[in-house]
Amino acid sequence: MKRLVLATMSVSALFASAVYAAPQSIQISGNVDPVCAVTGLHSSTSLHVGPVGSGNSGTVNAITVTCNYYSGADVTLTSTNQGLKSTDPSSPVILNYTASLDMAGDPVTLDTSSATFVTKGYGGGGATALAAGITSDLSVNVPTGTVFSGDYTDTLTITIAQQ
């Protein structure tokens, strides 16, 4: 009887070690919200380049350009007046300038003597720097030249959009 019990226990132990639990799966997912934005400018941000016509320039620091689309983004600089326009309504005078957003050494540059806007493509194929945000400085240069007295103004717009 002892042998039969031992044999039964041995066979039971052998079969018990061969039983497996059914595998279970877990679905894992996540999401990253899309972002294409220019930050660091405020409604009160302005740049006074001093007396125009004497070759002055100015800089707006720490503008961050971000776009986390895998396809990359287009950055556009747009001048409302195609230069610094006289605030005198009877004056047709417009002073040209260049504006350059440095974009970590790969600048987008607008020359108002030849265009009201310029667009440059960045990224594509998963540009991680643009997805994380590129902090750039915007430089504006007004060339030397003869100008008439008065005030001059323009609005420069920076736009970023998915490619």
Automatic annotation (TrEMBL):
The keyword Signal applies. Keywords: Signal. It comes from the Bacteria. Residues 1-21 form the signal peptide. This is Spore coat protein U domain-containing protein. It comes from Enterovibrio coralii.
